[in-house]
Fold this sequence. Notes:
Helix content is 80%, strand content 0%. It is mostly helical and 64 residues long. It has a single domain, classed as Helix Hairpins.
Amino acid sequence: MKVTELRELTVDDLRVRVKELDDQLFRLRMQKSMGQLEAPAKVRDVRKDLARMKTILREKEQTA
């Protein structure tokens, strides 16, 4: 998801998406530990998306 799209979301929507990505990252780490992870790059992508969302969420919370 692009940053411009993320900035259009509300704080509540961002919180929901952050929670979803946290869950997805947990599942990917579990798959990795069991040797079932098919796309190791997916972990990196999810971590970057999560960082972007948390940054924008923090910006919105500070201005509100």
